[in-house]
Structures are given as C-alpha cells and as structure tokens.
Amino acid sequence: MGCGSRFLAYPADQATAVLEKAVGLGIDYLDTPSATAGESETRLGRFLATRRKGRLPRHEGPHPRPHRDAALKEVEASLKRLQTDHLDLLHLHSLGDEADLAKIEAPDGAIKALYELREQKVAGSSA
C-alpha cells in the first residue's frame, strides 16, 4: 500500500483505520515515500508501534542525498518516525542519469551507507 499523497489525504485521526483496513485485507507491504516530509512515516510509525511483526515498511530515501553521511542521517530520522529499528527494504530513488549513479557509487556515496546499514541489520532481508 502506498502511504503517499492519497494516504495523506485522509485526516490524521483516520490514518490508523485506513491501515487497519488495508492490513485486514492482507496488505503487508507499506510504502513510505521520502517526499512527504516525514508525515507518512509518522502516521505509519504510530500504526506499526504495536504491529511491526510481518509488516514490510519500505523507505524511498535517501533522496536526493548522494552522500553516505546524509543518507545515514536520513535513514536514522526515518527509523525514529517509523518507531522501528529496521527497514525491510531501502532503495535509492530518482537517479536521472549516469552522473547521479556516479555520485552514489563514489567512495563517500550513498551506496556505502546502504551496505553499512545492511551489515548492521538495519536494512535488508537480514534485518
């Protein structure tokens, strides 16, 4: 289930009911876009606080953070808003061209952050 603009169109006090309905219908993949300034993650975090097992929050970021330190900082903030210690899936978003790819693949690029997060079991299938 996408937790972006359509999800955010619901009043905040209805967000949990919307998520309850989706999960009740069997949805277990919850997509948190980075473009919502954390509101989507905050709403989802309130829901997941007592229901984390079996849910799959996915985070779109780091976007457009090409550097390791900025990517780590963004993921840390997301974890706090989501009230969890790990993300099941984390990917880089909106790479426009080869120059963007070169930035994230640089020695201090965001790819390094993703590998570190996987090793720390903060992100990925071993999380």
Write a concise keyword list for the protein shown above.
single chain; 127 residues; mainly alpha; three-stranded parallel beta sheet; 6 helices; 8% strand
How many angstroms does the end-to-end distance come to?
Answer: 21 Å
Number of helices: 6
Q: Structural class, from helix and strand content?
A: mainly alpha
Q: Which assembly state applies to the chains in this document?
A: single chain
Q: Return Rg in Å.
A: 15 Å
Summed over residues and divided by their number, the pLDDT gives a mean of 83
Global outline: elongated
**Low-confidence runs of at least 5 consecutive residues:** none
List the helices and strands in order.
Answer: HHEHEHEHH
How is the largest sheet built, in terms of strand order?
1-2-3
Provide the helix percentage.
Answer: 40-55%
> How many individual β-strands?
3
Question: Sheet bearing the most strands, described?
Answer: 3 strands, parallel
Strand fraction band? 5-15%
Topology (SSEs and partners):
Blueprint: H1 5-8, H2 15-24, E1 29-32, H3 39-48, E2 56-59, H4 68-82, E3 89-90, H5 98-105, H6 110-119
Parallel strand pairs: 1-2, 2-3
Helix pairs in contact: 2-3, 3-4, 4-6
Can you walk me through this structure?
The chain has 127 residues and is mainly α. It has six helices and three strands, in the order ααβαβαβαα. The chain has a three-stranded parallel sheet with strand order 1-2-3, covered by helices on one side. Helix 4 (68-82) packs across helix 6. The longest helix has 15 residues, at 68-82. It is elongated, with a radius of gyration of 15 Å. The mean pLDDT is 83.
